[in-house]
Amino acid sequence: MKQMRIRDLRENRNLTQKELAGYLRIHQTTYSDYELGRLNVPVSILHMLADFYDVSVDYLLGRTNVKAPYPKTPDL
Q1: Distance CA 50, CA 48 (A)
Q2: What is the pLDDT of residues 31-60, one digit of tens each?
Q3: What is the chain's alpha carbon radius of gyration, rounded to the nearest angstrom?
Q4: By percentage, how much of the chain surpasses pLDDT 90?
Q5: CA 22 from chain center: how many Å?
Q6: d(CA 44, CA 46)
Q7: Burial class (CB in 10 A: 0-12, 13-18, 19+), 76
């Protein structure tokens, strides 16, 4: 499985794991485990990361090289 891109995105914004973990309301060690692939990232956290970085979840997961997020659909 391809490595997720969350570390590169975080480092490109000069953020620490602690800062991003605070935004996500999780422990820094949990976030570190996501970056290292020790824990699967919950869908709710993937959504938050995609919104934070303004990218698609597919980009985060390494399924595409296109960063642009998909258009949001109105609530049904």
Answers
A1: 6
A2: 999 999 999 999 999 999 999 999 999 999
A3: 12
A4: 78
A5: 13
A6: 5
A7: exposed
